[in-house]
UniProtKB/TrEMBL annotation:
Enzyme class: transferase
Taxonomic lineage: Bacteria, Bacillati, Actinomycetota, Actinomycetes, Mycobacteriales
Protein's UniProt name: Putative serine/threonine-protein kinase pknH
Composition skew (Low complexity), residue ranges: 26-40
GO molecular function: protein serine/threonine kinase activity
Domain of life from the UniProt record: Bacteria
Segments of this protein annotated with the region Disordered: 16-59
């Protein structure tokens, strides 16, 4: 009985909500072996409060649990096979949140190297890379939460794909890649800041 109580307490401690959740902000990072990227002075609020599902769930259900606000099973569906080296990919129609994208593709990866390669490919197919609105820096760049300016939370790039504004980003903690298109780059970027 004691072992069950201690185990239950340990599980609660690992899964309890973090009341000090940091807020995101873009930051400059570069390493000598990589092309230099700039940062954008961007602040974001954390949009995912629940821990990702346990590994026993399917990759599709793990990915569905990570979608941005405005995307869920009513406007998104898994595709098979997943894109590239992703474990799961979900295509979504118009977001239900204000200023949201007309279409978004989310992919879940198995490790950071595969995520970085997926981001690189998504950026490579853009016809033009642009500064993200209000950033004053070239794409691609990294972003971070305001409270943790020394911790890169992911990468972001703004540009055009098939003559449509495009924002591509990663969330490194969740091994998530998202690629969203909409009619207006500034509106799309503002949506990412709030919900992405």
């Amino acid at each position: 009985m004691f072992v069950v109580a201690v185990s239950g307490l340990g599980i609660w401690w690992m899964l309890k909500p973090d009341d000090s959740a940091p807020r995101p902000m873009a930051t400059p990072t570069s390493s000598p072996s990589e092309p230099t990227t700039s940062s954008e002075p961007t602040r974001r609020t954390r949009t995912t409060t629940a821990a990702p599902p346990p590994p026993t769930d399917s990759y599709d259900s793990q990915l569905m649990a990570l979608l941005s606000a405005g995307h869920d099973s009513s406007n998104c569906e898994p595709i098979s096979p997943p894109a590239g080296t992703a474990l799961a990919t979900v295509d979504c129609g118009p977001a239900t949140t204000p200023g949201g994208p007309q279409s978004t593709r989310y992919s879940l990866f198995g490790d950071p190297s595969a995520l970085d390669a997926g981001f690189g490919e998504a950026v490579r197919v853009n016809s033009e890379l642009l500064e993200c609105p209000g950033s004053g820096v070239d794409s691609p760049t990294t972003w971070h939460y305001t409270e943790t300016p020394d911790q890169v939370a992911g990468q972001i790039a703004c540009g055009t794909y098939n003559d449509r504004p495009d924002v591509v980003w990663t969330n490194d903690e969740n091994l998530l890649l998202a690629d969203a298109q909409g009619p207006d780059l500034e509106e799309l970027h503002n949506w990412w800041l709030q919900y992405g």
